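# step 3/5: fold
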Amino acid sequence: MKIGYKSDVGMKRELDEDSIVIVRSDTVYESKRTRSALLVLADGMGGHNAGEVASCLAAQRVAEEMIRAMLKTPQRKLSDEVIAALFGESINQANREIMMYAEKNPQYKDMGTTVTAALIQGAQVYIGHVGDSRAYIINDREVRQLTKDHSLVQEMVDSGKITGEEAKNHPQKNIVTRTVGMHNQVDVDITTEPVQVQDFLLLCCDGLTDMLSDEEIHAVVTENDDPQSICDVLVEKANEKGGLDNISVIVVKFDEQEIKSATDDTRIR
């Protein structure tokens, strides 16, 4: 697989409060090779400096906890249920660490962050998600959002008070209802998604999706083949549209042979 990533301060902010961690690994157990990647994107909030601290703590802790747990668990036992539990535990560990850090450092009171993390194992993608950053599968046919925003406007859409179209420009669209670092326990949404050869995986913060429509994102992804070029162009276009917030993106292009091998192995089992 090929992975591109980019984080940019945007046109209106003085500080980039987003954090990205990417960890790739190759393992061989019982003569079977598995190539994995863990991607973590966190969008911090809580005022100058505090958001940066929260997102950094969360991204690092989630990555550390996930990798440590996976190395302790035999490959054959990494079921969907086990991976879901690992995401829940690692994000809640990050939640506790942020809260303890804020307790020891009062200037960081009420800081928090979104976390959208993806674990890629062969032909399968697992998503752990809190907040309003997003994960998408994009191919020639569609842009499919894998995550659901934990936001006030999403709740209003769900209850029928506003439409999805009205939500895009709603004055309260940036109010997040579930975050990492602000409550003793956080509910983590878990999504499992099979991927195809032609798919791209996109993780991004709202600094991208507030500036670019699904159609504009789709055009950039499908007109480019290189994940890093896609990231660069997405950030450039978001800044051209105003760049009102920090802009962070991760793009993954899946390797045809890896997908085929993983699919064949699943069929054999």
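# step 4/5: annotate
The radius of gyration is 18 Å.
# step 5/5: archive (pending)
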